[in-house]
Design brief:
The protein has helices spanning 21-35, 50-60, 74-85, 105-116, 132-141, 144-147, 171-176, 188-198, 219-240, 246-252, 254-261, 272-291, 300-319, and strands spanning 8-14, 38-43, 64-68, 91-94, 99-100, 120-127, 159-161, 165-170, 203-213. The protein is α/β, with parallel strands linked by helices and 329 residues long. The protein has two domains: 8-216, Spore Coat Polysaccharide Biosynthesis Protein SpsA, Chain A (Alpha-Beta Complex), CATH 3.90.550.10; 220-319, no CATH class. Strands 1, 2, 3, 4, 5, 6, 7, 8 and 9 form a nine-stranded mixed β-sheet that branches.
Amino acid sequence: MTQALPATLIVIPCLNEAAHIGALLDRLRPSAARLGARIIVADGGSTDGTLAIVAGIAGKDSRVLLLHNKRRIQSAAINLAVATFGQGADYLIRIDAHGGYPDDYCERLVEEALATGADSVVVSMLTSGSGAVQKSAAAAQNSRLGTGGSRHRHLSSGEWVDHGHHALMRISAFGAVGGYDETFSHNEDAELDYRLKQAGYRIWLSGKTRMVYYPRASLKGLYVQYLGYGRGRARNVLKHRVIPKVRQMVPLLVFPVVLLASLSFLHWLAAVPLLLWASVCLGYGLWTAIRQRNADIALAGVSAMIMHLGWSVGFWLQLLGLGARRGVA
């Protein structure tokens, strides 16, 4: 990049990430130095040693700052960081504490923003895991069965899109649409992208960099996560009166199918849709494991079922106004 670099703010929403935050900051600090950027760790009340790790690094590097996010959720963390430290900055870069990034991630984002004139640069999000459950969840999340073919779940050569995994945003555009909606604990990125597009701002899916996400390490954690995603998507539908896409409508049928199967004692046909869905998911997992010669991902079908069920249950509960909203993303 030969032209003068724009002022950039790197923000990491964080809650109990002691296992990842130290290595993540070590990876980002050289980029921050090259860009002349500050790194804001917006912590939502960690109790696992995260605060001490960040404070120790901040004591050695003045570019790293710790910000306490009393609202705890990610949407509030980003808004607070921009309101506190964003004055004079051109771009916001959002970093997820539970992810992995190339060494030049931030530079490539700024480079593409300058080259395309995009108001937001989003990235492909590939999923990777280390244990059997994580690996199976990753296989499901990287597949069309698990994500319905969402563009940012696969590698891109660079294209204009309506939504993607949030990476960089022009702070003037972020402020013009009001930032993240802090009533959203999940799906706040898609909700903001909708308002950006409605206001005429442009979103570019990067073809030069990507991030890696590490999924939940337990099936319970995966279910709770997707329960929140489903609630967030329903809130987006209700707020903006938008019709879900076909790839989102299909998993919506899962919860009704499960309820229908509970009536199988009246007639066995009530269980047929559930058995078909389970067969497709489990068959996919086994086929994927055989095709890739990797027994560790044989549970990918089970992970896909957990994802579908959690998303569907969360969507319907939110749509019908039932149950309490999960508080933390």
